[in-house]
Amino acid sequence: MKYGDNSYSRWIVDPLDGSLNFSRNIPINCISIGLWNNNKPIFGVIYNFLNDDIYIGEVGVGSTLNGNNITVSSIDQLAKSILCTGFPVYSSFDTNTLTDFVINIQKYKKIRLLGSAALSLCFVARGSVEGYQENDIAIWDVAAGIALVLAAGGKVDFSFGNKENLLNVFASNGLIG
């Protein structure tokens, strides 16, 4: 069944986001669990087990980090903003795609490619970075993080990608992009 065809509640789990990082002993990975209903995020929990940090977010209620409330940043200029992004497994590396990527990131102060979409979204939710963008990223990589960003007062635009279970995602503090 195609992900986009579902119209019921479902848990979306990534037992190890940042698995390549984990396999190479790069300490940027986590467990990610999201609850979605009718293709909309409701709840997310992300556990960064290496730092013992737990992020919890319920859309319309709020987000926390280890029990303390978190919110998105208040930076409103791209030239002062940090963007997390990456190249998912399903990315195209043709010249046009890479040229468009470079043109897009030139607007930002700094770019971070962490290798964990879920933790990148946590950093948007907690106000450490202003935005996150990836195309054709697997739904299980971002389901919980999208809920966290929305619950922390951010904005998320997403659409279904080129293949089943893939999304195009732009998440931000709502003040940029």
Largest beta sheet: what is the strand line-up? 1-2-3-4-5-6
Query: What's the architecture, going by CATH?
Result: 3-Layer(aba) Sandwich
CATH fold title: D-Maltodextrin-Binding Protein, domain 2
Beta-strand content: 35-45%
Biggest sheet statistics: 6 strands, antiparallel
Question: Which value, in Å, is the CA radius of gyration?
Answer: 15 Å
Euclidean distance between termini CA atoms: 33 Å
The arrangement of helices and strands along the chain is EHEEEEEEHEHEHEE
Q: pLDDT under 50 segments (min length 5)?
A: none
Please tell me the total number of domains: 1
Secondary structure: helix percent: 10-25%
Structural class: alpha+beta
Number of helices: 4
**Overall CATH class:** Alpha Beta
- Output mean pLDDT: 93
Number of strands: 11
Coarse morphology = globular
Written overview of the protein:
The chain contains 4 helices and 11 strands, in the order βαββββββαβαβαββ. With 177 residues, it is α+β, with helices and mostly antiparallel strands. The protein has one domain (3-172): D-Maltodextrin-Binding Protein, domain 2. Helix 3 runs parallel beside helix 4. The N and C termini lie far apart (33 Å). The relative contact order is 0.21.
Tell me the layout of helices and strands.
Elements: E1 10-17, H1 19-23, E2 30-37, E3 40-48, E4 53-58, E5 62-65, E6 68-70, E7 82-85, H2 95-105, E8 110-112, H3 117-125, E9 131-138, H4 139-151, E10 155-160, E11 166-172
Helix pairs in contact: 3-4
